[in-house]
Specification:
245 residues, mainly alpha, Leucine-rich Repeat Variant, 2 domains, 72% helix, 0% strand
Length: 245
């Protein structure tokens, strides 16, 4: 019985993927939503990947070929795919990272721009990819999430996911390049702001990122200056003996 149920579900995925790929705008949006809802287990995610669903979902991240709703559903589905280790290993990392970075790079004040919730999902998906390889090229786009104005719906969570992606990039891969990219992309003010007043998880990850950045002497002066401006107590750096009182 279990095998039959699995086969039935597999057969149902193919037309959904086809609708995401070549349906009309409304069909793409509905299909992307169903695929995102369907991707609620490792087995279902594998079926989506087997059916060739990743590439058309990545296409929906491009707002020149998609709608905001379709993009939002696609971002959720792709994040779920990237969250499953077996499926993550099968992804075209270059295409995944490029599509997510391009979507995140859309200015918030553009005529058509992803919502904070969608930006959070995009950053979260990149954070999953960062578990297996460097996303240094996408860090400027991820860091742009930290500049979103506080108080709007979904912003706090989006910043939490963005910081988590930066954290993974700095901690797991090409740390020196990730640190430099973070600073060059103007990530310091955002990290300091989150370290001061973000959610518990975001504050923890932001402080770890700052600690890692401060291990490089050339970065410390900038961190101290930004922390003083934002009134962030750098005691967490002193505890690890990076800065002395």
């Amino acid at each position: 019985m279990g095998g039959s149920a699995s086969t039935s579900k597999s057969l149902a995925v193919a037309p959904l993927v086809e609708a995401v790929k070549s349906g009309g705008d409304e069909d793409k949006q509905k299909a992307a939503r169903i695929v995102a809802d369907f991707a609620d287990s490792d087995q279902n995610v594998e079926q989506i990947v087997d059916a060739g669903g990743v590439a058309p979902l990545l296409q929906l991240l491009d707002l020149s070929k998609s709608s905001l709703c379709a993009q939002s559903h696609a971002a959720v589905a792709l994040r779920k795919v990237a969250s499953v280790e077996k499926s993550r290993a099968r992804l075209d990392d270059k295409a995944f990272v490029a599509a997510h970075a391009k979507a995140l790079a859309t200015p918030p004040d553009a005529k058509v721009s992803p919502s904070a919730e969608t930006r959070g999902e995009l950053a979260r998906g990149l954070g999953q990819i960062a578990l297996k390889k460097s996303i240094v090229a996408a860090l400027p786009a991820v860091i742009s999430v930290l500049a979103l104005p506080d108080g709007e719906q979904g912003v706090a969570l989006a910043k939490q996911y963005a910081v988590a992606a930066i954290f993974s990039s700095i901690m797991l891969h090409t740390s020196a390049k990730a640190k430099q990219a973070t600073l060059e992309a103007g990530g310091l003010p955002g990290l300091v702001a989150v370290a001061r007043s973000g959610s518990d998880a975001a504050r923890r990850d932001a402080r770890t990122c700052l600690t890692q950045l401060a291990e490089t002497p050339a970065h410390r002066e900038a961190i101290v200056a930004e922390a003083e401006r934002a009134k962030l107590d750098l005691g967490f750096l002193r505890r690890v003996e990076i800065l002395k009182s």
